[in-house]
Amino acid sequence: MVDLAKKQSISLAKQDGGKLTKVVMGLGWDAVQVEQETKKGGWIRRAMAELTAPVANSIDLDASVGLFDANKKLLETVYFGRQTGAGGAVQHGGDNLTGEGEGDDEVIGVDLEKLPASVHTLVFTVSSFRGQKFADVDNAFCRLVDTSNTAARDPNVAIGAGKELAKFALTSDSDCKSATGMVMATVFRDGTGWKMTAHGLPGSGRTIADLNSVIQAAL
């Protein structure tokens, strides 16, 4: 597994040297912990407030992917509102509205062998549907997992049985804090194989459609 830096590219290959046929892009995040205000009042109320742990506001981030041809033309988009694309080769795992729980919060599976030849580049984005800024997000990451050896069609299941190829911390740069959207990474054809580039390009938008100018900069 490779921890990617911003703008770093790697060739994608199975760890055992075999052919890479299926991958899942996972997106994970936590909400920033917020200290609760200690309210004035009787000793019981004050004691209860002191015992209350910091709370996390729910954060609704959405993973999406745009499919582009070699001329940078958008062919189709897969997101929470349209969860299947490329004739079933791309599958969204569903919408997580809060970011609660450990590990990946949203996933997108891609069957590389079943992708139409017209698809040259996959652009993976994250956006805040409620307009919450990344300053309100902790531990955001994306990771690409090799799921070639699992028969599971549900990407939520397949990612747990796969082998991590690369991981990228999304919100480590200060210029991301005021953003509401971001191009996370691209996966693109390279000869007979595939490569991945970590981007972390911030933008403003609640959906992938709002991030078009940032996406074009990544292509």
Automatic annotation (TrEMBL):
Domain TerD as annotated: residue spans: 2-201
Organism expressing this protein natively: Thalassospira xianhensis MCCC 1A02616
Entries under PANTHER family matching the protein: CAMP-BINDING PROTEIN 1-RELATED
CDD domains, sorted: TerD_like
Domain of life, source organism: Bacteria
One matching Pfam family: TerD
Protein's name according to its UniProt entry: TerD domain-containing protein
Keyword Disulfide bond tagged: no
Keyword tags: Tellurium resistance
GO BP annotation list: response to tellurium ion
